[in-house]
Specification:
The structure holds two protein chains of two kinds. Chain A is α+β, with helices and mostly antiparallel strands. Chain A contains three helices and four strands. In chain B, helix 8 packs parallel to helix 10. The chains are: A alpha+beta, B alpha+beta.
Chain lengths: 98, 271
Amino acid sequence: MPKMYDKRTALQIIFQAAEKIAKSISVKGVTESDVSKGELRKIFNASGKRGKDILSMAFRKFVISNVIRTADWEMIIIEPDKPRIHFRILKQKAKDKP
Amino acid sequence: MINIMYIPVGKLKKSRWNPRIVFDPEKFNVLKNSIQKDGIKYPLLIRKISDEYEVLDGYRRLEAARALNISEVPCEIIAGDDKYIAKTSLKIHLSQDDLTPEEIVNMVSNMIREGIYESEREACEDLGLSWRTYLEWKKQLKVKPEEEKTGIPATIISTIQSAELPDEKRKELIEELKEKPLAKEYVKKVVQMLEENPRLSPSELVTKFAEAEPRKSENEIEARGKYLYRLRESGQNIVFELVEKTLVVGAITIPKADMPIVKRLFSKWPT
């Protein structure tokens, strides 16, 4: 399991992950969806990277509550360990529209 | 007069106007320890929403209380519309000095979206934030995270960021690793050596470890330590050579079929 030491890195990883999830959801033509570990693995573990594990660690160690909301999206962490989240796009970016 | 009430933890939830998204696990443990010994010294700031209450300030204290199985926590109830509540919450957190720039910029964006502020400039003026600092934070947010910027894995970046090194050494180390990527174990060793001896140069250490990393060409693998160690194929054999400058100072020939035995032998050697 990779290690992570500071909350700012964790937050940057979560924001970066949210961008990727929003893009992946937009492609399907929906604005909200449950995203489970299989899908997260597909999004984050391309070319042997361990993005899913790193995201899971950021959730587990650093996130203060299970709801993260920005002006563009809302993320509800249902299960931080696997992880499983509910993701809702609040404002779609022009480049991400299907 | 401040009215303090004890509210059951089950009735408290985080307010959407509380800007904090992440916390520092070490500081959280310190807080938990302090609460366990002395209780909650400062009441949580909360607002009543129908049957429940939302926590504007003190969510970490609440989480610590939950972790310690404390059933009720002291709270100060304030009232007001969203505009007042959102501004008050952000101002209190800003004064606590440990919000990340991402959390501040994110909350200001949320507040603009919900009509609390008309613009970022208005928010900065009201919060007493320098416009230049705010723009710098926004710029940082638009910049891709370190991993994508540098090509160095996030876990290695994190190891470097958490090291007790001066900023210029950290930057130099990241710059070197962009050119000469190292395995995480080696990065840890480099960081440890730099922490222990501030006179060492990140550039020289990375170069040294990068040379120790095995390099593969068509029929050869080599790595540098005291000697240049080289494995090369020769018919049905593998030749293991020790090279000093350009001179082969030692060589042994191992049948290819025995390589698994030799590998296993080396793997058992205590490091």
